[in-house]
Amino acid sequence: MTEGYIYCVSNASMPSIFNIGMSWMPPDKRLDDMNNSNNARLLWYPPTPYKCKIAKKVLDPLHKTATIYKLLEQYRINPVREFFRGSIKDVKVLFDLMDGEYCIDYDGNGCDNDNDDLEDPTNNFINKKKADLQRLNEGFEQRKAEIKIAEERILDCIFKKSDTLENDLKKLEVRIANKKTELSEINDLVEERKIALANLTNDIHAYCDTRISRDQHTQRDQIITEY
Fold this sequence. Notes:
Blueprint: E1 3-11, E2 17-23, H1 27-34, E3 50-59, H2 61-71, E4 83-85, H3 88-97, E5 101-104, H4 121-226
Antiparallel strand pairs: 1-2, 1-3, 2-4, 3-5
């Protein structure tokens, strides 16, 4: 019996659909051939590349693929095509039943239909909106921080101005108090000057009265003497 390979490949453009076949060439060569877009014979060529999920080197690969096809007959999409709808884990169980040596062994932890490779427009829209919302939130937080800094600066200026005005007001109050003291001293001096002026006036009047009286007596004495 001749050795060959049985394989299972998937494509992100066809979720949950697998191509199961056999090849005389190694799986990587077969995969390159399947993904060759220049090959006009590949009428089933999809927009995204195939990925090999499972590959096994076996004896009589034709017989083994025929057996797998029979076991998966109810999952076959087209009786003349090698495409099956199902789970990669179920396919792995069938490959385990075949004698041979794995070249590529599915570990059971991967995604069955390569949805990670196929972009979901809805997810893209949601992710874009989430990114936009995140940017808006970041911008909002940045604006809040800027406003907070501006408020702190304004308050600092107000406090500084308030302190300056308070100091100026205190200085003004001191100057007013000094002016009041000076004015009080001036008023006292004015009163003293008024009293001094009044005393001087009284002295002048008294002097004048005394001089007039003396002159009158002298004049009278002269008249008497003349007679």
